[in-house]
């Protein structure tokens, strides 16, 4: 029986209640982070909490991003769900909390945020997709796509794009701007590799600056790879030697086809595979540095 963490309490999932007047439900007035746990260890927690705190500050929702406190909460939640020995997916949601319906603007009274943390087993298919790669389809959208660059609860278009991609046999949707350049995936950031050089769309394109994207850029530079944050035209992506997507759960996911056109040899490329190993090494390094005894 699943347990969630809701407003400071561990509650059986079927008994967890959120107000019908919660602004997250009414207006999508909130934010979230999706985080991966590796057999009880959470990688990059400080980065995730920092991004959530930054977004909350932007829209005026109070949020305390104390990593030590959240590690303890996560550890207990994983234990209660018997997930401490397996890889798991965590979703931390914060909303402005309840108010009286009828006003689009936030209430004048200090907000009482809703905090919800959910833990689930990681999708077992991720490892296989990392090994063989995935295909994607493009969805053309206005540019900039996400001017606020925060991970708000308004994920309707991302969900619809993902559903459309899956209906056409792809595993991800790529948003392309009016200039024909790829911005990001519905649940990922995009990298192309040509002649050993990596290119990823810049934050100025309107993308959500992903935590894994940030880590990969750091790792690539550390490995002596040349990386540019520059527009990625769709035709340049299709003619790249290799490409990959990044996300907290998918880590580094080889992208082998877009709109039915094969990228490179149609299999994970050597740079992608090397960075996959570097990413896993970074996870283990952080675990060792912070201490294996904590989440």
Task: Give a nutshell description of this structure.
The chain is α+β, with helices and mostly antiparallel strands and 295 residues long.
Structural class: alpha+beta
Largest sheet composition? 10 strands, mixed
Q: Helical residue percent?
A: 25-40%
Average pLDDT score: 92
Which spans of ≥5 residues are poorly predicted at pLDDT below 50?
Answer: none
What's the Cα radius of gyration? 19 Å
**What do we call the CATH topology of the largest domain?**
D-amino Acid Aminotransferase, Chain A, domain 2
Shape category: globular
Q: Which superfamily, in CATH terms, is the homologous superfamily of the largest domain?
A: D-amino Acid Aminotransferase, subunit A, domain 2
Instruction: Label the CATH architecture of the largest domain.
Output: Alpha-Beta Barrel
Strand content: 25-35%
Name of the CATH first level of the largest domain: Alpha Beta
Description:
- By secondary structure, this protein is of the alpha+beta class.
- The protein folds into two domains: 3-122, Aminotransferase class 4, branched-chain amino acid transferase, N-terminal domain (D-amino Acid Aminotransferase, Chain A, domain 1), CATH 3.30.470; 127-284, D-amino Acid Aminotransferase, subunit A, domain 2 (D-amino Acid Aminotransferase, Chain A, domain 2, Alpha-Beta Barrel), CATH 3.20.10.
- It contains eight helices and 16 strands.
- The strands form two sheets. Strands 7, 8, 9, 10, 11, 12, 13, 14, 15 and 16 form a ten-stranded mixed sheet that branches. A six-stranded antiparallel sheet has the order 2-1-6-5-3-4.
- Helix 6 (211-222) crosses helix 8 (270-290).
- The two termini are 22 Å apart.
């Amino acid at each position: 029986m699943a347990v969630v963490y809701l407003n400071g309490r561990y509650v059986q999932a079927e008994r967890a209640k959120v107000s019908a007047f919660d602004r997250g439900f009414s207006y999508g007035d909130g934010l979230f982070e999706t985080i991966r746990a590796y057999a009880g260890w959470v990688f990059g927690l400080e980065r995730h909490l920092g991004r959530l705190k930054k977004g909350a500050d932007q829209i005026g929702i109070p949020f305390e991003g104390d990593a030590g406190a959240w590690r303890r909460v996560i550890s207990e939640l994983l234990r209660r769900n018997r997930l401490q020995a397996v890889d798991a997916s965590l979703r931390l949601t914060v909303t402005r909390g309840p108010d009286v319906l009828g006003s689009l603007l936030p209430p004048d009274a200090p907000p009482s945020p809703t905090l919800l943390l959910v833990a689930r087993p990681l999708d077992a298919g991720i490892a296989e997709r990392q090994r063989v790669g995935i295909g994607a389809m493009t969805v053309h959208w206005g540019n900039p796509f996400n001017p606020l660059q925060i991970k708000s609860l308004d994920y309707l278009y991302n969900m619809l794009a993902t559903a459309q991609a899956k209906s056409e046999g792809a595993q991800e949707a790529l948003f392309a701007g009016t200039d024909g350049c790829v911005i990001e995936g519905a649940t990922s950031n995009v990298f192309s590799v040509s002649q050993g050089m990596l290119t990823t769309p810049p934050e100025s394109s309107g993308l959500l600056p992903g935590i894994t994207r940030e880590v990969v850029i750091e790792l690539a530079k550390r490995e002596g790879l040349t990386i540019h944050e520059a527009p990625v035209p769709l035709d340049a992506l299709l003619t790249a030697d290799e490409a990959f997507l990044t996300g907290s759960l998918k880590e580094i996911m080889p992208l082998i086809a877009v709109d039915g056109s094969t990228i490179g040899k149609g299999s994970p490329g050597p740079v992608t595979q090397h960075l996959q190993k570097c990413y896993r090494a970074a996870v283990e390094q952080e675990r060792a540095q912070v201490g294996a005894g904590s989440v």
